[in-house]
Amino acid sequence: MATKHELILQHIEDLAVGSKISVRQIAKMMDVSEGTAYRAIKEAEMRGIVSTIERVGTVRIEKQQKKNIERLTFAEVVNIVDGTVLAGRGGLHKTLTKFVIGAMEIDAMLRYIDKDCLLIVGNREEAHRASLEHGAAVLITGGFDTNDEVKELADRRELPLISSAYDTFTIATLINRAIYDRLIKKEIVLVEDLIGDTKPVSISLSARAGDYRALVNLTGHSRFPVVDPQFRVVGMLTSKDVTGEPDEAPVERLMSKNPITVTPKTSVASAAHIMVWEGIELLPVVENRRLMGVISRQDVIKALQYMQKQPQVGQTIEDIILSQFKEEKGPDRTVWLVGDITPQMSNRLGGVSTGVLMTLIAEAGSSAIRRSRHSDMVVENVSIYFLKPIQIDSTLSVKAAAIDMGRKFGKADVELYHNGELVGKALFTAQVLER
């Protein structure tokens, strides 16, 4: 039987896009406490199916697919620019296609305005009206208001009319930053990208060992999540658990209870770390405790290999750091990273940031281990023995050499040099993902 929490989430998902939601309304309708309603609404917000806007409330929005993740809803724009919704609340769930800065004559401006775009403009009421008539929402800068006729038009067309105290440049910067951050997130491969829509194979809690053996013969797999009647994961069953047991033995007695699980929004890198660290070959993927799919170690390795071949669209801090360094292969399977320390890599004292040095140590150590073992890996430990201050606008050389390689791990000795002087030393350890 579904829990109250699950029933509320299902109710929210069934609401029409654009519907307003409140804790008190949900609590009264579903006959639950306001605390239960609040927790369910917050989870719905994390799933991306509702959005909470200050001075407006919580609105049901359309869940964005990953391919369109860089697109913002007008509700999200309100939050980004600390805006006030003057009118057109019925359109807050809509997705904007682009934004236009209205720093031109109206006739020229209308050539750039399309349906569902956002016009960013000051207190020019004729521009507000023209934009709404052409199907575009309006964001008024400088905290200005507009006349009642324009507000009535926005309500009738269900196009948001937003006011923000920020200037045009600041608003454009904030929106661009939000889109840029989403582009980076779009490149991160999540577990949900691996599981697809295929119904996962599982075994019932009420099954017997004989049912498990029949399932093995049918599928060719040997590991299955165990689910209860509500399809919630309660255990894992493998060939090791069933070996030597009679066909009548109940699965509930044989299974491993409280298995480690991940959610669809877990990154593949995190899933890989869990699998290596815990020695797991198969991870159940759950949402609200229900089984959504499973991922194997092989799935994770293939995804990591795919990620390495993809071009970067949005630069992360790591990309910015490593773009200043060139990798060189030395003798005896050593690896060198050589590059310049830029002002962006400095701390407040004018030296190199510790985070930058950690990135360089991890990259050099990984490259050295990869020369010995052509496998993917996850960082397990970095032990820094000493670090001397390193001046910005100088050249830094990072040397790494694999010193110990096992079947499931690798260690590398890492040294940092500046002007020929040893300025840092560390030991890098990584868990190797077996193919």
Automatic annotation (TrEMBL):
The keyword Metal-binding does not apply. Residues 196-253, 255-310 form the CBS domain. InterPro entries: CBS_dom (IPR000644), CBS_dom_sf (IPR046342), Diverse_CBS-Domain (IPR051257), DRTGG (IPR010766), HotDog_dom_sf (IPR029069), Ser_kin/Pase_Hpr-like_N_sf (IPR028979), Thioestr_dom (IPR006683), WH-like_DNA-bd_sf (IPR036388). Gene3D superfamilies: CBS-domain (3.10.580.10), Hotdog Thioesterase (3.10.129.10), HprK N-terminal domain-like (3.40.1390.20), Winged helix-like DNA-binding domain superfamily/Winged helix DNA-binding domain (1.10.10.10). Pfam families: 4HBT, CBS, DRTGG. Keywords: CBS domain. This is CBS domain-containing protein. It comes from Kyrpidia spormannii.
